Amino acid sequence: MRRRVLIPIVVCLVAAPTLGAETARQILDRRKALDDTARHWVDRRQTLKFRIVDRHGGVRTRDLELAEKRYPDDERKAIVFFLSPPEVKGTSFLAFTHKGKPADQWLYLPELERVRQITANTRTQSFVGTDLTYRDLDILTEMASWTEADATSSLRGEETVDGVPCHVIDLAPKRDDIGYAKIVLWLGRDDLVPRRLEFFGDEPEAAKRIEQRDIRNVGAIPVAYDTKVETLAAGSSTEITVVDTKFNQNLSDDAFSQRALEQGPQ
Predict the structure, then answer these.
(1) What is the phi/psi pair of residue 143, to 5°?
(2) 140 within 8 A of 130, measured Cβ to Cβ
């Protein structure tokens, strides 16, 4: 009789840690809660530098300014102005990001003096010669607000990225517009800051990898000052360096319009 009593107790003790473990969705929801409270920002300005390396080792650079503003229901507006070199100076980009559906995106080309809307057919094109596509920009902006209706999540375990222990989370997109079969996210265990993302198409190997490094706090908000984007099969990469970041600058709604797109940075 005593042996029968001990067996259920042992089973409960062994099972307890598993029953109490967080799911991938709970971890992602904790990150979202932080972004909506302690790390919340209304708008931001950034000065960025792109360094693009092609498969042959050729290097091109881009200097640009980014402004972004958040709205209720996880809507966002962003505008980008390219400052140099001469071949891209005056080019600008505008995006209205929506929760649960593709963003509205426009590109202004100064040599044509017209605004071109990015359509479903052009979303997979390179963003001004970088390793990011217009679709990638949309995913990276919207991803933090995804629910299980957008992409189912599962926790693979823990791994270390650049010395940082991370939760490894598999995301299986359910929306056709996301365009990837699988996305793997390495999320810092202690700070819930993304350290690595890998994007998969139909092949077993990742098509693209994004790594975020040099994480610094601007106030209470963590910012990755160094981001590397690699198109693995092509052997090309784009390194994004943050030169300056300012939050909560009271940006006007008028700063995010097609008129502002054509006028250039103010």
Answers:
(1) -55, -40
(2) no
Exposure b/e, 100-120, CB count within 10 A at least 16 = b = eebbebbbbeeeeeeeeebee
Distance between CA atoms of 81 and 107, rounded to whole angstroms? 10
Please enumerate in sequence order all residues whose Cβ is within 8 A of that of 221, keeping only pairs 6 or more positions apart, or say none: 39, 41, 247
- What pLDDT is stored for residue 91 in this prediction? 97
Binned at pLDDT 50, 70 and 90, residue 5 comes out as very low
d(CA 93, CA 115): 9
Q: What is the pTM of this model?
A: 0.90
The tens digit of pLDDT for each residue in 39-79 reads 999 999 999 999 999 999 999 999 999 999 999 999 999 99
Q: Which two three-digit tokens encode residue 216? A: 């610094």
Q: What are the two backbone dihedrals, phi and then psi, of residue 39, each rounded to the nearest 5 degrees?
A: -105, 15
